[in-house]
Amino acid sequence: MIIALNNKSNLTKEEFIEYQKQLSSIQALSSKIILCPTSTYLALYNLNNIELGAQNVSKDEIGAHTGEIAATQLASLNVKYCIVGHSERRQELKESSEDTNKKIKNLFSKNITPILCVGETKEEKELGKTTSLIKEQLMIAIKDLSEDEKNNIVIAYEPIWSIGTGLIPTIKDIEEVLSLIKEILPNAKCLYGGSANDQNIDYLKTSNLIDGYLLGGLSLKPEKLQIFIEKAEN
């Protein structure tokens, strides 16, 4: 199982240092835990029980791209995973699936595993566009990837209407999306994200198609995170 922690734009430097101390005691029997901190804290990473991920990467390589972080730079910090295509970047920064495709290729060129986010808005769900939209996001994002790259990419299904709302889809709805993803990418690991927490994990883990979770708010609460991991693994 993969459990990825997306800190988003949270924690001051001092808070992050204390947060890492708390994470150092996190225990997992078999799960791979990945920490994706704010980019400014990547160099402060010092954990042995958790792998390092990033929240974003540039669609361009090293060069005159002010404010961007190139895949080469992430690799130099021993980053092993990187989130791409997150809905907040798609919506707030108008990033396209074509942009995401470039990012994925850059990451693979530096042996960094992409965690590709796909998902629909509430309006798109109500209009019955979920599967067609996610298929479109997925097909554009993985265009021209090698079979080996397709086998190693991680896909995170995050219904946009669920993120931070406390609402989650039914298992039937989740599995409809994950079945579509696995039909296109049979060997890819599929994560669920969107208001997953220590209270609803017993329900979520009834799905045999969920290979792990992408956690936002819960990632900032180490004590509840430990409970989540224990429930998810048992």
Describe this structure in words.
The chain has about 230 residues and is α/β, with parallel strands linked by helices. About 40% of the residues lie in helices and about 15% in strands. It contains ten helices and eight strands. The radius of gyration is 17 Å and the shape is globular. The N and C termini lie close together (about 10 Å).
End-to-end separation in angstroms reads 12 Å
What characteristic shape results from the CA principal axes? globular
Strand order of the largest sheet: 1-2-3-4-5-6-7-8
- Supply the helix-strand structural class: alpha/beta
Main sheet specs: 8 strands, parallel, barrel
Helical amount among residues, as a percent range?
25-40%
- Quaternary structure state of the chains depicted: single chain
Low-pLDDT residue spans:
none
In short:
With 234 residues, the chain is of the alpha/beta class.
List the helices and strands and how they pair.
Layout: E1 2-6, H1 13-23, E2 32-36, E3 51-54, H2 71-76, E4 81-84, H3 87-92, H4 97-109, E5 113-118, H5 122-126, H6 130-141, H7 147-152, E6 154-157, H8 171-184, E7 189-193, H9 201-204, E8 212-215, H10 222-233
Parallel strand pairs: 1-2, 1-8, 2-3, 3-4, 4-5, 5-6, 6-7, 7-8
Helix pairs in contact: 4-6, 6-8
